[in-house]
Amino acid sequence: MGRESVWADLRGGGRRYLRGAAPWRAAAYVGGGALVGVPVLVTLVASLAVGVVLSVFLVGLPLLAALAFVGLPVAALERRRLRSVDPAPAPSPHRAPDAPGLTAWLRLRVREQATWRELAYAVLMAFVLWPLDLAAAACTLALPLLLAGAPAHLALTGGPAEGGVRPAKLWLVESYPAACGTAVLGLALLVALLYPLGAYAAARAALARLLLAPREAETRAQLAEVTRSRARLVTAFEAERRRVERDLHDGAQQRLVALSMTLGLARLDAEAGSPLAARLASAHGEADAVLAELRELIRGIHPQVLADYGLPAAIEDAADRSPVPVDVAVDSGAGLPRLSEPVESAAYFAVREALTNVARHSGATRAAVRARHADGALRLTVRDDGTGGADPARGSGLTGLADRLAVLDGTLTVTSPPGGPTVLTLEIPCTPRPPSGPAPTE
């Protein structure tokens, strides 16, 4: 069983709290706060003073600007110190920069709310929290320990003959019996004050966690990791799809082409009208049919037109192959830019799935596809004049399509009232990719 928080030990009962290490962990946390706060206070005051003085010569302006990041190391240390009181994970709320370099790091940190929360915590630590920590440690630890040390204090000062001692400046102790009684009182007071010390440490840690490691930070970190893993899965899936397409195109298809040519040459050598010529003709026809099916399969895995000419040409190709007439309209002006391979692939297969549903289920006589890229997102709309009533829950392929788009943070909206029309709208956040060279020519 892992170590529990000080607050959990307090709620578990007095004996449980005292038997464990929770009181001493709370004492270490509160005492450490007093030790950390003093350097933070000195650093803030000294940096601010030097920056203000030197700002007359413009030299201090960078130093004043750097004060915005003082909270970062303080917060990192405080999240580490939280483990002594609350062992629950305290993840950093900061995101990793998208680009390397100090400039990208600074730009991201300035925009993050966590940076300013941590700066506020550093100021609070310097002027409020560490004095409170020091006062709590003095009242709950120093005072009882001074009383408990009365016999030793009396002996070190020469004993009763020297006039006695005043433990913690409270009262005069002139004999060893009185010193022992004071020590017993101090130990009893120490045990009693360990409870408010633990409660204070728990509240102090809760405040630090609220400012430095809020719950949403952990959730955001988990969501970020899920997003990154989904992006890696999409990239790996697309790479595997391309590999399979390439292997089929360069391997099985070429062998079938060679087989078809060999059978064609063999037919020329066979006697016309003979049984051998008939069998060769049949085999030649089967080879051509298999080759056509394989080419269609390759096109379905990853159409070459999509890789070579982009999404508009691929949508036109899908529309030409649809049994239902399809009107295609691409963004006016320069047209759609080239997008990342996962986005183009997801959009293409979304259009193809939608046109397949139109042909199979809608009873439509005409469909239309509209595509545009604006405001950092690709928007595609597929409309048909069919009977409507499309329901993703009935497994028409729309559920899988929505899941595929969700991997790219895309959304799918289906409007299909009974009687039609059916309008399928998808939106994928994306940015144009830089041009990699001229488009291939035929």
From TrEMBL:
It catalyses: ATP + protein L-histidine = ADP + protein N-phospho-L-histidine. Residues 240-306 form the Signal transduction histidine kinase subgroup 3 dimerisation and phosphoacceptor domain. The chain crosses the membrane at residues 26-50, 56-77, 119-147, 176-202. Residues 431-442 have a biased composition (Pro residues). This is histidine kinase. Residues 346-430 form the Histidine kinase/HSP90-like ATPase domain. GO terms for molecular function: kinase activity. The keyword Transmembrane applies. InterPro entries: HATPase_C_sf, HATPase_dom, Put_sensor_dom, Sensor_HK_TwoCompSys, Sig_transdc_His_kin_sub3_dim/P. SUPFAM superfamilies: ATPase domain of HSP90 chaperone/DNA topoisomerase II/histidine kinase. It comes from Streptomyces flavofungini. Residues 416-442 are annotated as: Disordered. Residues 29-212 form the Putative sensor domain. Keywords: ATP-binding, Kinase, Membrane, Nucleotide-binding, Phosphoprotein, Transferase, Transmembrane, Transmembrane helix, Two-component regulatory system. It holds the Pfam family HisKA_3. The keyword rRNA-binding does not apply. Its EC number is 2.7.13.3.
